[in-house]
Amino acid sequence: EFIVKCPAHCKETKQQVYGTGVFASISSICNAAIHSGVITNSGGKVIVRKMAGQNIYKGTNSNGVRSLSLPKWRESFVVSGIKLRNTVQTAIAFKLFLSLHLVLCFSGEAKERSDLPIYPGLHPFKTNLHCKVDLAFLMDGSWSIGKRRFKIQKDFLAEVAHAINVGVAGPMMGIIQYGDDPVTEISLKTYSNSRDVKTAIDKIVQKGGLSNVGRALSYINKQYFSDANGNRGGAPNVAVVLVDGWPTDKVEEASRLARESGINIFFVTIEGPDDNEKHNVVEANFVDKAVCRTNGFFSLPVSSWFALRKAVQPLVKRVCDTDRLVCSKTCLNANDIAFVIDGSSSVGTGNFRTVLQFVANVTREFEISDTDTRVGAVQYTYEQRLEFAFGQHNNKADLLNAIKRINYWSGGTSTGAAITYAAEQLFSKSKPNKRKIMIVITDGRSYDDVRAPALAVHRQGVIAYSIGIAWAAQDELEYIATDPDKEHSFFVDEFDSLYKFVPKIIHNICQEFNSQPRN
Ligand SMILES: *[C@@H]1O[C@H](CO)[C@@H](O)[C@H](O)[C@H]1NC(C)=O
């Protein structure tokens, strides 16, 4: 429960409300309060109480606010008026209000941030409601930049820190200064509010030296974004490189490696090379080579240092647009993986346990969530059974439990039909930005033909792996597997050797992922 002070005229902000009486947490608190009749459009203090997520939120028209319907949301709130019985309670409520600093027309999710300063006339939630990113700035400390512009750079960083609202439930921000070598000025975990970050920025002293951006990118990849330094894991890694002119070393390779490990790289080039200067540049088109896609999203050219201020809002908007931070996708968090498990009689109860262990051991290596890797499973004999669908278990613990609970079926072996079933029940529900991976595990020759079903799923873009044990047929394993067979098809004589293929499968999935062009 907490208290929120609603400013006047929230209605005019048109911030959305979902539900009636009980509102989805993404709703505007104050508009929900108006909808509920707790306050009018002239504002006032209200009590907000958190509630569990609902399966349905019904939209209605009430007190001039039209709320919308929403199916299923993870969290809700209700709003009520403040009725204080005595002055002590008033004092407590007032203190609570001060410590929360919440003044909002905006979403109830903003409440998760306890460190929001109030900026008159500025609505901090507008741009970065969901801006949970681990954000590092690589600032240019080279001599070429000069004292005055270095100060402009610091002012720019301070403005970004202000605009983005640093906080443990939102963005965390750190700074590296590069010259000949990079140094950490502010680690990701040091400050949990914008004010402290700004104070620390003010104290940064120019190092001088060259402008070795490539070296700095290697540094963030190998050291800066480590867990020990405050990388939270659940938040995309973003690095914004500020460059005066152009780098004095090559950036392509270092940048690619950083991107492959999941770091989104933005380049803000200030006073970049003009036509007369291009021949001085160490690596032509260095920005295009360093960023993930050449569609302009990850690069922001700024014509002069004095125009840099104008880049604050556009940059904040982009780094907070987590849906577009596609470069943070790695081989471990970008997949829909379907296990197609042979439950025929020849396997036997004990070996079936070993197969499930294998499935669990492979699963354990991935980052599991609805927006990361999802796992589904089908067991088959003559028939097929959906054990669980993609997204049915959205965290690792639940998923591993569900795998453990799969019951051995026992029966015949129709691998072809099982592949078709997996395509219909699982891959047809794949999200477009996920990589579809099928892992078929079988211990014998199929009673039906596997060729046509395998070809059909390959054509749908599924990358198929086959794992054969004991009596599995080599030719079938190869039909099932995506080419080249030797990287997608494995055979072991006995179930007890299955464990050896866990690292191999992960390695191959990642190698294949990293070999895909990213532009
Ligand atoms: C799974 O992992 C456990 C723990 O590392 C190991 O003991 C077991 O042999 C593995 N089994 C398989 C089939 O991979």
Automatic annotation (TrEMBL):
Signal peptide: none annotated. It is found in: Secreted, Extracellular space, Extracellular matrix. PROSITE patterns: LCCL, VWFA. Transmembrane segments: none annotated. Residues 1-77 form the LCCL domain. Keywords: Disulfide bond, Extracellular matrix, Glycoprotein, Neurogenesis, Repeat, Secreted, Signal. Gene3D superfamilies: LCCL-like domain (2.170.130.20), von Willebrand factor, type A domain (3.40.50.410). Its main location: secreted. Residues 134-319, 336-505 form the VWFA domain. GO terms for biological process: nervous system development. Binds dermatan sulfate and chondroitin sulfate. Promotes matrix assembly and cell adhesiveness. Plays a role in spinal cord formation by regulating the proliferation and differentiation of neural stem cells. This is Vitrin. It comes from Myripristis murdjan (pinecone soldierfish). The lineage of its organism: Eukaryota, Metazoa, Chordata, Craniata, Vertebrata.
